Structure formats: C-alpha cells, structure tokens
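Friendly challenge for the regulars: who can give me the structure tokens for this chain first? No prize, just bragging rights.
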Amino acid sequence: MNNHKNEYKICSNCIMDTSDPGIIFNEKGICNYCINFEENVLPNWNTGDDGERHLQKLANEIKNQNSDKEFNCIIGLSGGLDSSYTAHIAVKHLGLKPLLFHVDAGWNTDQAVGNIEKLVDGLGLDLYTEVINWDEIRRLQVAFLKSGISDQDLVQDAAFFSGLYKFARQHKIKHVFTGSNFSTECCREPEEWGGYLGIDKRLFKDIWSKHGEGNLNSFPITDILIYKFIYQKLLGMKIHFPLNYVPYIKVDAERTLYEEYNWEPFKHKHHESRFTRFYEDYWLPRKFGFEKRRAHFSSLIMTKQMTRDEALNRISKPEMSEEFLKHEFEFVANKLGLNVEDLQNIFLSPNKTYRDYKNKRWLIGLGTQIMRYIGPEKRFFR
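First reply, four minutes later:
Bragging rights claimed.
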C-alpha cells in the first residue's frame, strides 16, 4: 500500500480520492476503503439463510422478553430511506411492535414529515416526537459554524442520538433498531470530511465556551462513551442492525416503500434534513473541498448498485441548481437569526478542525477500534 504525495489520485475501483488526505492505494490503484470492504465487510455480511435465521431468532427473543409490554423495541425515524425501511422490516418481516421515535430539530423537510406520517399510518404504529428547544439548537449551530470545523452535522446528531437513547433508557426499552448498514454506507466518510466518530461532550463544551452565547439548559447531549459503554455494556441496551441481514438494495427498497405506503424517495442521501442538505451540498464542498457524495456513491459502487461511470458523471455536477443553493443559503441564514452577510463572513473565515478544540478523540477512537474487532462494526474508520 502506498500513500500519495501531493499529486491528485482517484481509486481505480470506486471514486474516493486524495481529497481524503489519509487515503492509501495499492499497486493496482485500489484504495484502502475498497480493500477493507473486500477483506472485512464482505466476510461478515450475510443476507442469505444465515442472516434470516439470525433475524428470526432475534425477533423471537425480543417478543418473549417483552410479551407484556406495549412496545418491544424502538426505532429512530427520520423519514429517510434507511430508517423507513428498518421500520418496514421490523413490522412486516419480523412481526415486532416498535415505538417510532422522531427528534424534531427544526430542519425537517415537508417530504420527510410526509414520509413519517405515511409510515405511521401504514404500519399502524405509535409515534413519539421530541421537539428540541429551537432557540438552543439555533445558538448551538451558530457556535459550531463559527468554530470553523467541518463537522457541522454533529449538533443534529447529538440531538437525534441523545434523545433516542435517553428516552429508551428512561422507559426501559432494551432493544434499539437502527438503519445503519453496509449496503449503502460501507464506505464511511473520513474525519476530515466531517465524519467525527461520535458525540464528544468535551468538544461540544469547548466550542460552546469559545463561540456560544447564553446557556444551554435543555439541549440533549449524551456522550458516545456513555451510550456505548454504560447504556449498552452495563445497562444491557442492545443496538440492532437489521438491514445487514436482509437483501437491501436502494432502488428496490424505495420501490417497496412507495408501493406499500406512497413513501417518496429523496434526490440524495440525508436530504430529509434541510440543514444537512445545505451542509453537504453547499457548505462542505465549497468551504472545505469535501464531497460526502464520494463516500455515498463509492458505497453503492462496492455493493454493485451503481457503476463507477455513473458515479463520476453524478459527482461532476451539484445535486441542486445554483439558484436553489443560493435560496437555501438565504433560508439557513435567516432561520439561524443571521443575515446573509453574517453567514457569508462565517463561510469565509479560516477553516479549522476538531483538533483546534479540546476533545477526547483518542479515547473514542480506541473504543471504535475495539468495537471493530469484537463487534458488528466492520467499516473502515479514520
């Protein structure tokens, strides 16, 4: 395996390239993400008979353990494809009775809201929605933007995961189903692209101390080490990845959800959140030069759902028009209580990384590597 030295290079198999400064290529020009997929993901990914037996055994155990409860598991639902199909599989394939849990962080698209309503009605399930204090999340997101780091979705992630795990713990729901999967996410974006490994309370506190205004009294934040080790290892909460055990093909899943519930597909991954769409389609590529679509499309290439030529054509142009992105820039600024000039000044300010702030990345990284060796996580992290 050879590292690159300044010259531009792109993988000969997927479309990951040297915009990831830590990417490594072998003598055939194949990157370490593709090699990890072949060596570590594929051998641990079974969507055939073994996967079916695993899921049915799991479903029976959950039903037996929770026979006297109204809900036997919980699913965080965003309205996007992965979480929506997870809910479909849990009910229609496994016969479970999940509580659907949604965190409203103020950025839902109308399409996401519509998809959630359609699934709730179509599956006959209950939905609990936790609405985050908008003034707090607004001020926290402004602080993160001012911090200059690329990891701008950490605020929403903290709200989503902290809210879900805290609710599950408080209501003694032991089984959490997640839409995280190998099929569409086997190539995980690197840290430089805003792929920080989890919710780091120390990082949040330092960014807030330097760029925040006022107090955060109700914003939910549960450190990754709390929910990974205390909630899961000590309190017995189990996180399940059902999409890794069934045939999960993006276009087929979208078709199934449309036919069953009139669910509407998004133009691209993560577009259920208006802020995430703006961040990934405008802020990240134009301020930092990073395209998360490279990782998204590379995952589909590795799992044979997209050709490399299709991915290269798609990555050659933005997902949204220039006029649309200009409008979204204005919308985001206004919603965050800024004028367009304020947001433009933040955009033009020096870029930084999480290393410019207090953090416990080394400890989180150690835990992640341990989980790669002993747990179900086999994707490449760096």
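Residues 49-65 form the longest helix (17 residues). The two ends are 16 Å apart (CA to CA). Your move, everyone else.
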